[in-house]
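USER:
I wish I could look at a protein chain and see how it folds. I am handing you a single protein, as its sequence and its fold in token form. As I understand it, each token names a local backbone shape. I hope you can help me see how the letters and the tokens relate. The protein I mean follows directly.
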Amino acid sequence: MKKLLILVVSFLGLIGCTHTPSQVLISSTGDQAVRCAHGAWGWGIAGALAMTSAEMSQQQCIKNFRQMGYIEIEKFPVVGISFNVKEPLTEAIFLRIDPNSPAHKAGMKVGDKVIEKNSNPVKCVGDIMSIARSNIGDVDEYKVIRDGKQLTFKVKVVPLSEILSISKR
């Protein structure tokens, strides 16, 4: 069995087979995702050229989406809350709190109405969208109304990949 494994590994090395991690990018609004990936194989020099070409295609994919405002999932800052971004004039009410997110751990709940973020007044979803995006590692402060009471939450900003448990594959 050991000889067979060595033979297979040696054979794959001659073919020039490769698989490299893909890259997930998220639109600046967070509502779209794309995965740039590549894989290639071939014999000898042709295999090496195929791998180089595929790697260049992946890098071009990443570059193109960055130019359109997409951000690598490892760099996309979030706290784990969702609003109705398609209706920017609606009240800023949490529609979703991601499980195991900083927002969930802080005690935020679906239905909480945001009235302030980082000392900026919030009347609608558009206000939230116009406030500058925080950086990973920052702590955002949200003031919300829940059951007629004002509550304040301090929430650490983390990469989206941490909340989704997605890694480069």
About this structure: The chain has two domains: 2-73, 76-164.
